[in-house]
Amino acid sequence: MLDDDRDVLHTARLILKPHFAHVQTESDPGRIPDLLREAHYDVVLLDMNFTPGATDGKEGLYWLRKLRELAPETQVVMNTAYGDIAIAVEAMKEGAIDFLVKPWEKEKLLTTVRNVYELSRARREVAQLKSREQMWQQDLDRPFAEIISQSPAMELVFEAIRKVADTNANVLILGENGTGKELVARAIHRQSGRAAAPFIKVDLGAISETLFESELFGHRKGAFTDAKEDRPGRFELAHGGTLFLDEIGNVSLPLQAKLLTALQSRQVTRVGANHPTSVDIRLICATNQPLYERVEEGAFRQDLLYRINTVELSLPPLRERPEDVPLLVAHYLDLYRRKYQKAEVQLDAAAHEKLLHYAWPGNIRELQHAVERAVIMSEQRLLHPADFLLTGTAAGSATRRARRPEPPPSYHLETLEREAIQKAIEKHRGNLSQAAAELGLGRTTLYRKMEKYGL
Ligand SMILES: Nc1ncnc2c1ncn2[C@@H]1O[C@H](COP(=O)(O)OP(=O)(O)OP(=O)(O)O)[C@@H](O)[C@H]1O
Questions:
Q1: Taking the chain, what is the end-to-end CA distance rounded to the nearest angstrom?
Q2: Which residue of 54, 126, 174, 237 pairs with 49 in a disulfide if CB–CB is 3.0 to 4.6 A?
Q3: Cα 264–212–268 angle (5° rounding)?
Q4: How far apart are CA 251 and CA 175, in angstroms?
């Protein structure tokens, strides 16, 4: 509160102090710029006249303008004397939010300041939401914002996405678990002309045979015991947008036939209905199964494969894009540091080495979970190799070994020891107690050696 009358300031302080976290009173308006530099004020109560004898309110209006200029989000309430209403109105035109007529009642002062404070908080929230939405919009404008990658292998994928996104072509995304198939499907949708319409995902691996038709094609009320009302299926929900069928390799042959019929005709009939409904969808399918082999085994219909694979995208496993590992580690470290409020957590060099040389059979999802777990469990600022329990299957490492020439044999003791430890950990699938027992070491010694060798 700014007022040249120290009694007024004293009374206001007594009234407001019990209700607000911070109340500041000041008799010299010349200090306004300094005060605003030092702190943020939600509400300022500003007198109209400061010089003895002045009644025209010019000073108040001058400082009001100054306040609006220096702190536009601060709300200003004018303190006016009885009879100053015309000046008060002018002040409102200049951006004051309200005015109080002196001498004010205790209750009047309290309610006014409280209301204005609530309003200023609400306005701040709206501003925050707006900027969040703007950031989100900017994110949408950057096509691959959330797909983190700097590898040539993924650059080819990005290029393919760019080419295919704005066509209506059916896309089949192949790749191991956790390679980002859903992320890519969403990126295609967002860059297509259908971006404003829904992206509907169906996890075909998780839908039971009995619910398949009703989930995908919908049902009429009374079609079966649980059908309490008419319900559209996922195909209809995706009308105008994109339908993403995940785990398409897991669908049984009878259901593949039903899917094929719907995809060929672009029509669906709700369970219990007599007439089909046309749907306009863009289809994206994904699977981690070797679909071509499944066709040869007779487990996947060839005609369905040809219907869904107009364009095929293969996502490389993480072990084939090692350039991405440091980037992903940094990304998820940052994310989980913030989520779990452990801003100080860092990886030591050996832990970095360990993550870099791991085969990541579970791909990005495994990396994400490994980093999250390490951040949650960490008790120190520095994360060591032992904080990352990577229980990669032998298959993962085997693939990696197959891709890289074996180093020449060495009888250097440390090299042999490192190898023995690595093999024991692999053999016991990451169970360090068992690995330590087999190596004839105590657990603490094993940890120490793992750290030394960056395992
Ligand atoms: N390039 C990437 N950058 C950042 N995060 C990624 C990247 N690729 C995948 N992820 C993250 O990894 C997790 C798995 O990705 P996603 O679900 O897209 O994989 P998927 O191949 O569909 O997996 P699944 O086959 O198991 O369904 C998600 O949390 C996703 O956000």
A1: 63
A2: 54
A3: 35
A4: 17
Q: What is the CA radius of gyration of the chain?
A: 33
Asked if 313 and 161 touch (Cβ cutoff 8 Å), the reply is yes
Taking the CB of residue 438, how many other CB atoms lie within 10 A of it? 15
Contact between 273 and 220 (Cβ < 8 Å): yes
| Confidence band for 141, pLDDT divided at 50, 70 and 90 | low
Ligand 1 in reach of 203 Cβ (< 6 A): no
pLDDT digits (tens, 9 = 90+) for 309-359: 999 999 999 999 999 999 999 999 999 999 899 989 999 999 999 999 999
Rounded to two decimals, the pTM is: 0.60
Of 318, 324, 386, which is closest to residue 350 (Cα–Cα)?
Answer: 386
| Tokens read off for 247 | 């785990």
For residues 69 and 71, give the distance between their C-alpha atoms in angstroms, rounded to a whole number: 6
Q: What is d(CA 304, CA 283) in angstroms, rounded to the nearest whole number?
A: 13
What is the rounded CA–CA span in Å between residue 440 and residue 418? 14
**Antiparallel, parallel or unpaired: β 382-383 and 346-347:** parallel
Pick the CATH number of 152-316 from 3.40.50.720, 3.40.50.300, 3.40.190.10, 3.30.1490.20: 3.40.50.300
Q: Which two structure tokens, joined as six digits, stand for 370?
A: 């490994």
CA of 368 to the centre of ligand 1 (A): 9
Please count the other Cβ atoms lying within 10 Å of the Cβ belonging to residue 37: 9
Q: Is 152-316's fold the same as 320-453's?
A: no
201 Cβ contact partners less than 8 Å away, ≥ 6 residues apart: 182, 185, 244, 246
Pairing mode of beta strands 43-47, 75-81: parallel
The length of the chain in residues reads 455
* CA–CA distance, 67 with 44 (Å, rounded to integer): 9
Distance 179 CA to ligand 1 centre (A): 5
Tell me the pLDDT tens digit for each residue of 58-115.
999 999 999 999 888 899 999 987 667 888 889 999 999 999 988 889 999 999 999 9
State whether the beta carbon of 182 lies less than 6 angstroms from ligand 1.
Answer: yes
Q: Where are the domains of the chain?
A: 6-129, 152-316, 320-453
User: Rounded to the nearest whole angstrom, what is the distance from the C-alpha of residue 249 to the centroid of ligand 1?
Assistant: 18
Fold of 6-129: Rossmann fold (3.40.50)
